[in-house]
Amino acid sequence: MDLSVVRSFPLKRFGESGKLQIRADFYNALNHANLGDPIVSNTGFGVFSEAFYGKSAAPSAGVSVVPLDEEPRRIEFQLKVLF
Predict the structure, then answer these.
(1) What is the DSSP code (8-state) at residue 37?
(2) Phi, psi at residue 13, to the nearest 5°?
(3) What average pLDDT is seen over the chain?
(4) Environment class of 51 (CB within 10 Å of its CB; exposed 0-12, middle 13-18, buried 19+)
(5) From CA 70, how far away is CA 72, in angstroms rounded?
(6) Which of 32, 33, 25 is nearest to 2 (CA)?
């Protein structure tokens, strides 16, 4: 889900149409871990399932839990002068 928040302020120096606009755009605002399908493995103590991070369900090589296939949350700030 993408969100935008915008606020405009009038600028009298630039005439009737002059405005200062402050804007914040949030892309992938509800970012959360997307787990793949569980993979069944036999460990000797029984049968266990493990869900890995990301769409490809590939096991991570290190300690990092950031999925490489997913898009991260992005926030962009803008300051505009309209005249």
Answers:
(1) -
(2) -65, -25
(3) 76
(4) exposed
(5) 6
(6) 25
Residue written as token pair 């928040």: 5
DSSP calls for 9-29: EE-GGG-TT-EEEEEEEEEST
Average pLDDT for 34-39: 65
CA distances from 72 to 13, 41, 57 (A): 40, 30, 17
How many Cα atoms occupy the beta-carbon half-sphere of 55 within 13 Å? 4
- Over residues 20-46, mean pLDDT: 76
Are 81 and 16 within 8 A, CB to CB?
no
Q: Among all chains, which residue has been given the structure tokens 């399908």?
A: 37
